[in-house]
Amino acid sequence: xxxxILVTGAAGFIGFHLAQRLLRExxxxxxxxxxxxxxxxxxxxxxxxxLEQQPGFRFxxxxxxxxxxxxxxxxxxxxxxxxxxxxxxxxxxxxTNPHAYIDSNLVGFMNILEGxxxxxxxxxxxxxxxxxYGANTRMPFSIHHNVDHPVSLYxxxxxxxxxxxxxxxxxxxxxxxxLRFFTVYGPWGRPDMALFLFTDAILHDRPIQVFNHGRMQxxxxxxxxxxxxxxxxxxxxxxxxxxxxxxxxxxxxxxAPYRLYNIGNNNPVELMxxxxxxxxxxxxxxxxxxxxxxxxxxxxxxADVDDLARDVGFKPATPIRTGIERFxxxxxxxxxx
Length: 337
Hints:
By secondary structure, the chain is an alpha/beta fold. It has eleven helices and 13 strands. The protein has a seven-stranded parallel beta sheet, with helices on both faces. A two-stranded parallel sheet has the order 7-10. Helix 2 (about 40-50) links the parallel strand 2 and strand 3 (about 55-60). It is globular. The chain starts with a strand and ends with a helix.
């Protein structure tokens, strides 16, 4: 029988796409989301409505910080595998709403760990972020690099998730894999992300805000590539690294069943190139307001995906032009433009 899989954040961007993929493959999927108002709830409801049309999917509206509710869900459902994608997202939002990150990303993650521990979950794969690299400037970013200098509370909570997961892998033998996502974009994407914001502004004749005067680089990663990586990792249970050495500790592995992977396009793109490509796809030119680098942001990201390619046989490769064309087609269809 196919395993029963919990997907948290199922009404979110990545969770929605992952649930669709798992359902297409015939798995039983239980979705969890609190449908909060961080961004347009109607977009979340539209995603959820598509999932609920498919056999094998059930949904629970539940907050991660609800300790009793999460415990009851795990006890009742007995999941084999968990894809934990729910979190309070966004670097900039963490500057003004820090407590939301503690409740969801720390308290909520603890509740997920406890559920997995007490009910013999075979593998927990969870969303981390490229933000954990923080003040690092050595490129490309590798899971084998130290990441002890976050520059936003959001990044700090994601680093904390990796530490918490390692503790549970060490103490209880719970296999855990953290996935550091790099600037995910594509159809059904988040309205707070640059591509969505730029598209909306350009089509409605508003100027776009371009931070760091356009001197930004991001390893933009198309959603289908993210989902391919997550799916392969989810079904490859984390195992100990027999060569791990406490005298020279590797941050990306452990003697415990614990792993980390970057999922990125391994090809950083200048922000102005992204904008130019979007302008070409829309057939319009953006009015640009050049601004300094925002607090909590980093000037560049670049993923080393050698470990992902070696262990699961996949590396993202969707060209930025292809991904933007698909996003624009979805955006025009969704909003009737």
